[in-house]
Amino acid sequence: MRVADDPTDKRIDLPKALHDELDDAGRESFRVVAFTHLDDDHICGARDFFWFDHARILQGDDRVKIDELWVPAAAITETDLEGDAWTIRAEARHRLKEGYGVKVFSPNTSPNGT
User: Fold this and answer.
1) What is the CA 108 to chain-centroid distance, rounded?
2) What mean pLDDT do residues 25-32 have?
3) What average pLDDT score do residues 31-39 get?
């Protein structure tokens, strides 16, 4: 995560960059957001950035909507999740139950990789 008040931190301000990209494209939502797994280094900040349909508290004008959410099957079934991981799981489950805007995938687990 970028440290905003550290002038030597050269990492990108990801939320700003994503908002700028949407503005440049004239869009208010991402067509697809894919989370490959729920490790914090892949999802940190998602709860604060995205609009989540399952919880009114996670909605607002400053949040970015997701047209289609892609998650691995494990994201639906994992237990003992907290924070951003819990939120993504709850959103994926909500969309599955309601029948819209979610694609669930699984990694290839065959022995020969096909």
Assistant:
1) 22
2) 95
3) 95
Q: What is the CA radius of gyration of the chain?
A: 16
Q: Which amino acid is at 59?
A: Q
**pLDDT per position as a tens digit, 56-110:** 999 998 999 999 999 999 999 999 999 999 999 999 999 999 999 999 998 655 4
CA–CA gap between residue 27 and residue 72 (Å, rounded):
26
Q: Please tell me the pTM assigned to this model.
A: 0.85
Q: How many CB atoms neighbour CB 72 within 10 A? A: 18
Say if residue 16 is exposed, middle or buried (CB neighbours under 10 Å; 0-12, 13-18, 19+).
exposed
Identify the sign of the CA torsion 40, 44, 48, 53: negative
Length of the chain: 114
The dihedrals phi and psi of 103, each to the nearest 5 degrees, come to -130, 125
d(CA 20, CA 10): 18
